[in-house]
Structure formats: structure tokens, C-alpha cells
Design brief:
Helices cover 40% and strands 15% of the residues. By secondary structure, the protein is an alpha/beta fold. It has an eight-stranded parallel beta barrel, surrounded by five helices. The structure holds 1,3-dihydroxyacetonephosphate (13P).
């Protein structure tokens, strides 16, 4: 955690979920009502097919709804793409950009991710910018160099603590059940904090840095207690309301 920074517990459903899954969103929207929501923010990013209905379901709840990607342009001849403006039009509040699956599947590079984040700002969305090293980069001792380069390349100069969330997701920890050690996460987050503070001064000191990669109900309390870990970006365990709410609930004790 970072003093005076409100943590964010965010779920990324990836390419999972149909209308039948809306019951889970309904349960999450109910489950986050209560005093803890004054201290912790919650967000679910379903597939864009469910976005508009999901925002309506969460309308009277502190649960926010976002998207998983956006195009860097506002509109035009880009078949299959969705703009940040369209996400905002569906009452989405956040958009994930630069997830490692998009960096790999769609060959997205830092410059494109930066442009996507800028388009998110233009639509008044909060950009969740993902970075993280691969297994071979970690094994060859290059983790911090990779994080430095991705932060420098993917995060726009106009980033503030209000419009940007950084998500550190070691690629080898995603969907594998593996997580870095507490010491490794602490080192990576302290490094990212120092980089952000040196580039954005006060804004960088307050910018949220989430950890993502095999966050589960069973490890959430330990991971969320680490210095400079300001929440989680959760994949698999965010699909079920019970698991998501249990991770969110880890903050009951941490914020007591
Ligand atoms: P898992 O929680 O399934 O490892 O996924 C993490 C992730 O990629 C969230 O964006």
C-alpha cells in the first residue's frame, strides 16, 4: 500500500463472459456496497459486448465498469475496433491498455500503447497501463530495465495520478498460479515508484501501481500488504463474484 493512495481492486475478464455472466456482475455490484467502498475502489472490465448492460447493472453501486482495450483514434475505418469515446459513451470509466496479451497477440508496442492511453485521457477515461517482464527477461536479470523502458515508452507525459493507473503484471505469472516472491514484488514496485516520482514528481508519488498475475483469495492479503502495491489486476479469479469479493475483502483488515 502507499499512504494516502486509495487502492483499486480491478478485474479483467479477458475474452470470457456472455449474458449469463451478468449475474456475477450484479452480485459484485451488490457486494461492494458498504463502508469499505469509501477506502477501496472496485472495477470490472468485462468483454465490450457486455459493457453497456454491465454499466446499467452497476449504476447504483460503487463498482465501476471499464473496457480491456481501445483504438488510439476517435473514429474511422478501423473494422472491429472500439474507441475510447465509445467506451465512455457506454458509461465505462476505465480502459486497460498494453496488456501483455495484446502486446503479444496484436504486436502492440510502447508507442501505440502510449497513443491509446492519450486517447483514453481525451475521452475522460482512466487508463490502466500494463507493463511486465517475460520469464526469459527475468531469468537474465533484466526485469528492472524492462520496466524502466516500458514505463518510459508507454506512459504519456500528460499522465497524472487521476488519469492513470500502472499495472505491473509479470508475463510468466499470468494465468500460471505462479507469483513472484514478496521481496521481488516489493523491489519492482519500489523501482516503479521511484521512476514515476522522478518523472511526474507529486503525481508520480500518488499514481496507483497495481500488481497482477495469479492474484487469488488465498494470496490477496499478503500481496496487497506490500509497500507500493496499490491494488490488484485480477484475471481468472475475477470471473466469480465470490472470489472477486473475497480479494476485495482482504482490504477489510488492511485498512482497519
Ligand atoms: P490471472 O489473474 O488469471 O493470472 O490474470 C492476470 C491478468 O492478466 C489480469 O490482467
Amino acid at each position: 500500500m502507499t499512504p494516502e493512495v486509495k487502492p483499486l481492486v480491478a478485474g479483467n475478464w479477458k475474452m470470457n463472459g456472455t449474458r449469463a455472466s451478468l449475474d456475477q456482475i450484479k452480485a459484485m455490484a451488490e457486494g461492494v456496497k458498504g463502508d469499505l467502498s469509501d477506502k477501496v475502489e472496485s472495477l470490472i472490465c468485462p468483454p465490450v459486448s457486455l459493457l453497456y448492460v454491465a454499466t446499467a447493472l452497476a449504476d447504483d453501486s460503487p463498482l465501476k465498469i471499464g473496457a480491456q482495450d481501445c483504438h488510439q483514434k476517435v473514429s474511422g475505418a478501423h473494422t472491429g475496433d472500439v474507441s475510447a469515446e465509445m467506451i465512455a459513451d457506454c458509461f465505462g470509466t476505465h480502459v486497460i491498455v498494453g496488456h501483455s496479451e495484446r502486446r503479444t497477440d496484436h504486436k502492440e508496442d510502447d508507442a501505440l500503447i502510449r497513443a491509446k492511453a492519450e486517447s483514453a485521457y481525451a475521452a475522460n477515461l482512466i487508463a490502466i497501463i500494463c507493463i511486465g517482464e517475460t520469464e526469459s527477461e527475468r531469468k537474465s536479470g533484466r526485469t528492472l530495465d524492462v520496466l524502466k523502458a516500458q514505463l518510459a515508452g508507454s506512459v504519456p507525459d500528460t499522465a497524472t495520478a487521476a488519469n492513470t493507473v500502472i499495472a505491473y503484471e509479470p508475463v510468466w505469472a499470468i494465468g500460471t498460479g505462479l507469483t513472484p516472491t514478496v521481496e521481488d514484488i516489493e523491489e519492482a514496485h519500489a523501482f516503479m515508484r521511484a521512476e514515476l516520482a522522478s518523472r511526474f514528481s507529486g503525481e508520480g508519488s500518488k499514481m496507483r501501481i497495481l500488481y497482477g498475475g495469479s492474484v487469488k483469495p488465498g494470496n490477496a492479503r499478503e500481496l496487497m500488504a506490500i509497500a507500493n502495491v496499490d491494488g490488484a489486476l485480477i484475471g481468472g479469479a475475477s470471473l466469480k463474484a465470490q472470489d472477486f469479493l473475497s480479494i476485495y475483502g482482504a482490504y477489510e483488515e488492511l485498512t482497519a
